[in-house]
Design goal:
224 residues, alpha/beta, Rossmann fold, 5 strands
């Protein structure tokens, strides 16, 4: 019986989350295409990671209406992806409005159908100064809403194992549990070689540097 649905974007955090979930029991892997710039590359990483774990049960959902809604540099190519500024405390232009709620809704729907009792998501509060839907309070509230909006006895838990970790800790954890970090993709802009200049790339590079490790994916350039 499938124990958990794991939201797997193909990025570093989701891959480590998937590795943690796999140690807890059988998992179904869920990926969501939402019209993001690197959609095809992220989907490729999803399938590579799912293959790595021999996952037979996987679902790719399409919610490209988020691209139609717009409002984010990740889905609207008229809005430039800015250079990294990790000191910024405002909501950045790369925030996709209420994206995680859309993702979790799909995950809970699938969990209810297949009888899974847990939904794993690789959210990190280190990112929460920019992304309001990456905060622990949001996930607790969503879990309560899911309990009210599903059949009696469904009781799906939202699990965020990385929520209070820094990127360096996530890198170390991933290496410790043999997560396939070499198969992941985090860049907001590019699909062949990571740009090394967006917030996501810089957070990732800083995490590997602070962990004393070398990032295994290719970069065009890197902010020092």
């Amino acid at each position: 019986m499938v124990k958990s649905v794991v939201l797997l974007s193909g990025g570093l955090d989701s891959a480590v989350t998937a590795a943690i979930a796999m140690k807890a029991g059988e998992c179904a892997f869920l990926h969501v295409n939402y019209g993001q710039r690197t959609e095809a590359r992220e989907l490729e990483s999803f399938h590579l990671i799912a293959d790595y774990y021999g996952a037979g049960k996987r679902l790719v959902a399409d919610i490209s209406y988020l691209k139609d809604i717009g409002g984010s540099a990740l889905t609207d190519e008229k809005i430039a992806v800015p250079a990294a500024d990790l000191s910024n405390k405002k909501i950045p232009v790369t925030y996709v409005p209420f994206r995680n709620a859309n993702f979790l809704s799909i995950a809970v729907s699938w969990a209810e159908v297949i009888g899974a009792k847990e939904v794993y998501i690789g959210a990190v509060e280190e990112d929460s100064s920019g992304y309001p839907d990456c905060r622990e309070g949001f996930f607790k509230a969503f879990e309560k809403a899911a309990g009210l909006g599903t059949r009696p006895g469904t009781e799906v838990r939202i699990i965020t194992p990385l929520i209070h970790m820094r990127k360096a800790e996530i890198v170390k954890k991933g290496l410790q549990i043999k997560a396939p970090l070499h198969l992941t993709w985090s860049c907001y802009k590019d699909s062949r070689a990571a740009c090394g200049k967006c917030d996501s790339c810089l957070l990732r590079l800083r995490g590997f540097m602070e962990a004393g490790e070398i990032d295994p994916i290719p970069y065009r350039s890197a902010v020092k």
